[in-house]
């Protein structure tokens, strides 16, 4: 193979392998049986901003998480979801202590990873985290991890 052709093919192959899809999370969806109660929790307790559904269709409540990331609540009265703490939404805040006080003032229970009520887990990397459930029983982790 000629050296110029080899160099060109090598460059193309490197460009293909170096491709980065630059994914961002667009949204997560949760199936809920009580749309209004669950939406009120995300609005009033987690303080997420509700955003309009593009079609204004009944059975949906959408929330902005950060930037363009969203949480979609979808009403289904015939679907039962099995919930487990390992499958959870995780939100990060630099104000974890303030958030814990907010939960306590609203009588919202939280726990650490092993399940001790009112406790905070300290991960091996120094991140502090708590877990709580929404009115549907979905688990939510809130931690103080720093993101650049």
From TrEMBL:
Record's protein name: Catechol 2,3-dioxygenase-like lactoylglutathione lyase family enzyme
All copies of domain VOC, residue ranges: 24-145
InterPro entries attached to this UniProt entry: Glyas_Bleomycin-R_OHBP_Dase, Glyas_Fos-R_dOase_dom, VOC_core
PROSITE patterns: VOC
Pfam families assigned: Glyoxalase
The keyword ATP-binding is assigned to this record: no
GO molecular function: dioxygenase activity; lyase activity
Record has Oxidoreductase as a keyword: yes
Organism: Arenibacter echinorum
Keywords: Dioxygenase, Lyase, Oxidoreductase, Signal
Signal peptide: 1-18
């Amino acid at each position: 193979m000629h050296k110029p052709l080899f160099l060109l093919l090598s460059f193309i192959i490197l460009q293909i392998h170096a491709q980065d899809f630059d994914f961002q999370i667009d949204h997560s969806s949760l199936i809920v049986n009580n749309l209004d109660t669950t939406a009120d929790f995300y609005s009033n307790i987690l303080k997420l901003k509700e955003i309009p559904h593009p079609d204004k269709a009944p059975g949906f409540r959408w929330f902005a998480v950060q930037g363009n990331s969203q949480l979609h609540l979808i009403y289904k009265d015939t679907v039962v979801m099995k919930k487990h703490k390992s499958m959870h939404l995780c939100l990060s805040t630099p104000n974890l202590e303030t958030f814990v006080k907010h939960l306590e003032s609203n009588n919202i229970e939280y726990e650490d990873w092993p399940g001790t009520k009112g406790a905070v887990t300290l991960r091996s990397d120094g991140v502090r985290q708590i877990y709580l459930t929404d009115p549907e029983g979905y688990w939510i982790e809130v931690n103080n991890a720093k993101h650049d």
